[in-house]
């Protein structure tokens, strides 16, 4: 069993309207030092196999096809073997 | 200037419908080993001060009031001093 952590971020050149909106709220609440907020996704899941190569392959495909939008997002990942949860 | 990274996650006891929906898609695409997907937020921003205590205070308040929902989410953060961007 592997535990996967995937971080999906918009490419720096791509505008982040959600980040902009949150930052406007920050100004209203007086958080004037906050700059350049960018919001991405933090995804955790388990891969039920003991074969690291197969786990990595499945993780990459899952990330490319479902967890991120390759046109405007990049992802980075971490894969860690864990004991089977009963 | 400080660079902040905040990870917002739903508490383990709270259902994650978004994670469930993505995982159903995974099954349809044949990713049968993927289990227990949970989706959170990965937020990056800068805090324009050289006072670490002030930066940490502003980061915590910003995270509690705008970036997370304290009723169902927890957050963890990382704060790193960086050179001023011109």
UniProtKB/TrEMBL annotation, chains A, B:
The cross-references to InterPro entries, in alphabetical order and at most eight, read: PurS (IPR003850), PurS-like_sf (IPR036604)
- Give the signal peptide as a residue range, or say none if absent: none
Any one of the GO CC terms: cytoplasm
Tell whether Iron is among the UniProt keywords.
no
GO biological process terms, alphabetically, are:
'de novo' IMP biosynthetic process
Q: Which GO terms describe its molecular function?
A: ATP binding; phosphoribosylformylglycinamidine synthase activity
Q: Which SUPFAM superfamilies match?
A: PurS-like
Is Cell division one of the keywords? no
- Cellular compartment(s): Cytoplasm
Main subcellular location of this protein, as a coarse class: cytoplasm
Record's Gene3D superfamilies?
Phosphoribosylformylglycinamidine synthase subunit PurS (3.30.1280.10)
Q: What is its EC number?
A: 6.3.5.3
Pathway, per Swiss-Prot/TrEMBL? Purine metabolism; IMP biosynthesis via de novo pathway; 5-amino-1-(5-phospho-D-ribosyl)imidazole from N(2)-formyl-N(1)-(5-phospho-D-ribosyl)glycinamide: step 1/2
Any idea which UniProt keywords this protein has? ATP-binding, Cytoplasm, Ligase, Nucleotide-binding, Purine biosynthesis
Q: Which reaction does it catalyse?
A: N(2)-formyl-N(1)-(5-phospho-beta-D-ribosyl)glycinamide + L-glutamine + ATP + H2O = 2-formamido-N(1)-(5-O-phospho-beta-D-ribosyl)acetamidine + L-glutamate + ADP + phosphate + H(+)
The similarity annotation says: Belongs to the PurS family.
Quaternary state and partners of this protein?
A: Part of the FGAM synthase complex composed of 1 PurL, 1 PurQ and 2 PurS subunits.
- What function does this protein fulfil? Part of the phosphoribosylformylglycinamidine synthase complex involved in the purines biosynthetic pathway. Catalyzes the ATP-dependent conversion of formylglycinamide ribonucleotide (FGAR) and glutamine to yield formylglycinamidine ribonucleotide (FGAM) and glutamate. The FGAM synthase complex is composed of three subunits. PurQ produces an ammonia molecule by converting glutamine to glutamate. PurL transfers the ammonia molecule to FGAR to form FGAM in an ATP-dependent manner.
Protein name per the record: Phosphoribosylformylglycinamidine synthase subunit PurS
